[in-house]
Task: inverse folding
């Protein structure tokens, strides 16, 4: 069956539109968001509010899979996403699902495939992380540049997680991570598997949406972080490495003011949105929906537009 993929940068309205479409099409949603997987990590990840019913997370009655199930200390990657998503689609092969989210690597891995890279190695990752904390992110990037110049050129010095993974692959494989990546289907999405819809916003409008959402979530996000810490979550656990939570921790420790925290999270979120746009631009056959005015994002209208394309 042909699935529907809704992708786009953070704060672009993917969840709202996915829910509208799921109700119209009477189908289910598979979240492709690397942070909404965590239990009790709701505010800062913009997780859709739902409840667990008979082992299924439901949002306004719609089954919404792969959210709110992983422990804060659990590591989850593209391979794990593929395994979970494949189990869901294989169990109901007659169904078309809506895949909604901004983690491009998850969608690419599921629909296009993954290169045969070494799996994550917790001991090596811990060693590299400790080295980075001692020497700094610039030195970590320089270390990658020495071993894999191609990856270092592609990965910004501030993207610690990607640098760590590239170094981890390089050290485990004994050859540069870039040499193991085929780049297959780089400019195309397999149209026979899914209709790919990309939500593209005017940059200034998206920045305003991000700022508005950040302002609203700041205090609840701080309360959520305190609750996680009180429940025993370590400040450096995978869940609290999600975008914005480190800045919230700095605020809670008195290292930053509330306004500084707001500004920093807005900046980081806009930078993340830029990286997402760059990633999704690779799919030249995606159906791009442009939103250049706030009123362009009419959920009912866009739902009808996409539904008509699905026949």
Result:
């Amino acid at each position: 069956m042909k699935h529907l993929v809704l992708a786009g940068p953070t704060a672009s309205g993917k969840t709202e539109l996915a829910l509208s479409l799921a109700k119209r099409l009477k189908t289910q949603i598979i979240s492709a968001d690397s942070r909404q997987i965590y239990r009790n990590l709701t505010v800062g990840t913009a997780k859709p509010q739902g409840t667990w019913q008979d082992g299924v997370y439901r949002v306004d009655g719609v089954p919404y899979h792969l959210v709110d199930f992983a422990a804060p200390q659990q590591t989850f990657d593209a391979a794990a996403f593929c395994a979970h998503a494949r189990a869901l689609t294989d169990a109901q092969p007659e169904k078309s699902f809506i895949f909604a989210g901004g983690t491009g690597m998850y969608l690419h891995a599921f629909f296009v495939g993954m290169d045969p890279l070494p799996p994550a190695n917790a001991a090596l990752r811990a060693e590299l992380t400790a080295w980075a904390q001692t020497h700094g992110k610039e030195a970590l990037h320089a270390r990658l540049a020495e071993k894999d110049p191609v990856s270092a050129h592609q990965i910004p010095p501030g993207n610690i997680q990607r640098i760590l993974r590239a170094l981890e692959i390089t050290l485990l494989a004994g050859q540069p991570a870039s040499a193991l990546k085929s780049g297959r289907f780089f400019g195309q999405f397999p149209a026979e598997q899914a209709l790919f819809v990309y939500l593209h916003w005017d940059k200034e409008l998206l920045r305003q949406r991000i700022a508005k959402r950040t302002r609203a979530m700041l205090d609840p996000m701080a309360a959520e972080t305190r609750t996680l810490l009180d429940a025993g979550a370590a400040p450096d656990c995978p869940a609290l490495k999600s975008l914005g939570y480190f800045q919230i921790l700095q605020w809670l420790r008195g290292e930053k003011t509330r306004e500084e925290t707001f500004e920093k999270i807005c900046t980081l979120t806009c930078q993340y949105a830029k990286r997402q746009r760059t990633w999704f631009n690779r799919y030249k056959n995606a159906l791009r929906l442009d939103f250049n005015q706030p009123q362009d994002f009419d959920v009912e209208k866009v739902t009808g537009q996409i539904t008509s394309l699905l026949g």
About this structure: The longest strand covers residues 194-201. The chain is about 50% helix and 10% strand.
